[in-house]
Amino acid sequence: MVDATTLIAVGVAFWVIAASPGPANISNAAIAMRYGRRASVIYGLGLSVALVFWGVLAATGMGAVLQASAWLLVVLKLLGGGYLLWLAWQSGRSALRTRDTAVAEIGAGRWFWRGVILNLSNPKSVIAWMAALSMGLNPSDTVVSVLVTTLVCVAVAFLNNLSYSLLFSMGGMMALYRRGRRWIEGATAALFATGGLALIRSAVSR
Description:
single chain; mainly alpha; 10 helices
């Protein structure tokens, strides 16, 4: 059984990875500031569920198989890069508008699946999982140890996305978004485009 100290170390390591700025966190923050807490929480739930999928792959050893499968990684990177470029286009269009148009009502299901699609299209997630799990596991560990360590990372993933939703949906953050909407959307578009092009470049250079 993995001891408490090791579990804490794994949890902290995974939190550092999960909380770092990236497409998932940036999009979650932007949704929270523009659409509010409910939309962001549901979107974050979708992000977390997709991250759990990658975690299960890493914990069962399928992550190593995925990394070794060159063609599958290329397909995932191309899809992920294309999706990030689409998000960049949407944010760029918003930044070019002189006035913020009325926020359309989007169903909970659509927010959830947008979050799922974003994290499923990011094959780097399985690498992050494998790096975190490798800190707390060794070949002699039991299935219970693998399960407990994975559950710790799952809890961290959900808490991270919830934290982004709660923080960036606060009144002050939403007011900040309204004042600097075009700059924020422009910066978001640039970050999405950079991430998307990097994924596509990584795919075609293999």
